[in-house]
Every structure is written in structure tokens, then in C-alpha cells.
Specification:
By secondary structure, the chain is of the alpha/beta class. It contains 13 helices and five strands. Strands 1-3-2-4-5 form a five-stranded mixed sheet, sandwiched between helices. A hairpin with a 5-residue loop joins strand 4 and strand 5. The chain starts with a helix and ends with a helix. The relative contact order is 0.07.
Amino acid sequence: MASPIALALLLATAPGESPAPPLLAIKWEKKFDEAVKKARRSGKPLVVDFWAEWCGWCHRLDRTTYADPAVIRRAQEFVAVKVNTEGSRRELEVSTKYGVRSLPTILFLSPQGRQLFRVNGFQGPGQFPRTLDAAHHVAGRVIAWEAALEADPQDAAAALGLGRHLYEQEYFDEAQGLLRTAVVHDSGARVDQRREARMLLAILAHVTRDFGEAERLVKEALLLGPDPDEQPRLLFVLGRTYVSAGRQEEGVATFEVIVRQFPQSPIAQKAKETLTSLRARR
């Protein structure tokens, strides 16, 4: 008598057909540029494994995580490529471009080569399937923004979305360019989107010590209308800008406004701490 498992397999397979063979391994591309071309043709994101011969944890990834059936199955939704950080000149260029400083590093990229996010260090087969799922989810948003901007380079919503993402990934130069596009072309956008684009751009202007531009952007955002959540954040950026520009009295006055007018905001506590620090320097 056939066992229940064997019977189930027979019923699941049509006459004349064989069961689908199991997936045995991730198909790794050997050249980064070819992998990018394949990703652009297929519309799939990339998963890039940076490794070196001496890296024991890299080899452990191959033996465990990358051999796991759940990982192999999910990896089909990506174009997978390995980059040897001590390999060819091109592999060294790719490693430098993406700031790989420790191994193993696993990078997720859009088909246009923009970072979705990265994993620094080893992840086991229990965790990595969730990482692949999260990367694929982020990829859907980023790819949609990229497609929208390719169709219309002045699409303010797509520029804000992609700019915000790259800001969070600490790719500040490209984020700044996209956020500027959003600010210039967002006259028809929602107020919260217009406010956010100006705040992020003001923070980047502050980082580059363009304090006049940071001040202008924050004040422009404040003029878009009061918002009990965003106003204290904007005022905090403005106060920090004043202090960094050497205008300490104006900075103190701005932090005092936050504490007085928005006492329930989490930003009020940060403003109090900043005021204490500033007064201690006098």
C-alpha cells in the first residue's frame, strides 16, 4: 500500500509530469556590471555579497545562510552577485564606491545602483529570509520612484521619496539634489510633503555649514502653516542653525520658544538640554 506522503505526491503531479526539482543553490553572477545589466532588463533589485578569501564569516555565509532553502527561494527575486574586495580592479572600484570597510557586507541595490540598505556582518539562515523580504519591499518603493523620475524629472513626490530614502541611507549628496528638485517643483504637493522636503534640505545645508540657506529653508517651511508635531522640530533645526552660525542669543530664544509653546513635545526635552548646555558655556 502506498504511504500517505507518496499518495499525496502522486495526486499533486499530473500524468506525464515530474515533480519540480528542488532549488539547489543561489545563482551568483560573477561580474558586477553584468549583474546590473541583468537587473535593469528584469526589473529585479540586486543582492551583492562582498567577500574576501581570508574572511571566515564570508565562507560561513556560503555554507549556512546561502545554502538554506528559504534563502535560496527568496533570492530568486533578486539578481545575486559576488564581489571580491581583493579581486579585480573593477571589484575594488565597486567596493570603494559603496564604502565597504568590513566583511562580510551584504548590499541591496536598485537596478539603477542606488542602495536600498546594507547588512554589515554575518546573518544566519533564521534571520536572513526576513532581511530579503524587507529588502524586496523597500525595492518596490525605490524602483517606483526611479521610474517616475525617469518619466518626469520634475516629479516632486518621487524626488522627495527617493531623496528621503537616500538621506536615511546617508547618501547625502544625491539626496540633496533630489530634495532640491522636490522644493523647486512642489507647488502643487501636499503641505506636509513641502514642509518635509524643506526641513531635510535645511538639515543638509546645516551639515555643509550653509547656515543662511538652512535658515531660509526652515523659515519657508514654518510659513507653510502651523503643525503641532513638525513646528517644534523645525524650530529646533533653526535654533541649532543660529548657534552654529555664532548667533547664540537667537538660538537660545528659539529653544525657549519650543519649551514654552510645546511643552508636551519630545523636542521640548532636547531643547531644555541644549539650553542647559549653552548656559553652562557662558
